[in-house]
Specification:
Blueprint lengths: L4 E9 L5 E10 L4 E5 L6 H8 L7 E6 L2 E3 L5 H7 E4 L12 H11 L4 H14 L15 H13 L5 E5 L7 H11 L5 E5 L3 H7 L2 E6 L2 E4 L18
Parallel strand pairs: 3-8, 3-9, 6-7, 7-8
Antiparallel strand pairs: 1-2, 1-4, 4-5, 9-10
């Protein structure tokens, strides 16, 4: 089985601080939903950003979609195929309205206006977010913003999702809704989460980042449900 993403012996430290990653290894295969847990400051968000080239490790390698990636240009394709949903939605949403935020990625990938209009409508419909289409983004609730950031990433039709604390500050109904969405998506995922109930509901495998390295902590829920693909390919 060919891996989609792999970190091999990754070492990374912020300036004037000890290494937060010290030989970290993590692999994601097709159909997996890997939940990554660990203490605050353990380096979980850092590892996600390294996988898409937003941070450069001091040592180790990143292999994505069958190729080793080193230079910035190597990651252009990776960022098109691996959608990162940040921990803070305000770091990701910057257009005036929800529809414009969802349209931003496909437009920058060269899709026509007509294609993008269809993608936006389809994505919002599938996530039951159509009622937010023309809302001003910064006036949304925290839970609404999280769902819109997911919509904006899915509109780019990624092969992989990287989700950083997706249930943070969500109320129970919104968390349940997000769980239902993620467990029907076909994309492989790496999910950083402190939420044990959420992890048990979505994970096919769980690992822990501790002292700079990844440790297995047992299997999550078996049996992956492949629902309809929400974002178009091609």
């Amino acid at each position: 089985m060919a891996l989609l993403l792999e970190a091999q012996g990754v070492v990374f430290g912020y300036p004037s601080q000890p290494a937060v990653l010290d030989g970290a290894d993590l692999a994601l295969g097709p159909g997996e939903r890997v939940c990554l847990e660990g203490a605050n400051g353990a380096g979980k968000s850092t590892l996600l950003q390294i996988l898409v080239g937003l941070l450069v490790p001091q040592a180790g390698t990143v292999v994505a979609f069958g190729r080793e990636r080193r230079a910035e240009r190597d990651f252009y394709e990776v960022r098109r195929r691996a959608g990162l949903v940040f921990q803070d939605p305000d770091d990701q949403l910057f257009c005036p309205t929800v529809a414009e935020d969802v349209a931003f990625g496909p437009l920058n990938m060269g899709r026509s206006r007509a294609e993008v209009a269809d993608i936006v409508q389809c994505t919002l419909d599938e996530l039951n977010l159509t009622h937010l289409r023309d809302r001003v983004t910064h006036k949304l609730s925290g839970g609404e913003k999280r769902l819109v950031t997911l919509a904006a990433v899915l509109a780019m039709a990624p092969d992989v999702l990287l989700l950083d604390e997706p249930t943070n500050a969500l109320d129970e109904p919104t968390r349940e809704r997000l769980t239902a969405i993620l467990t029907t998506l076909p994309q492989a995922m790496i999910i950083v989460s402190h939420d044990p109930l959420f992890r048990r509901a979505v994970a096919t495998r769980s690992v822990r980042l501790e002292r700079g390295r990844i440790q297995p902590i047992g299997e999550g829920q078996r049996g992956i449900t492949h629902g309809p693909r929400l974002a178009r390919k091609g």
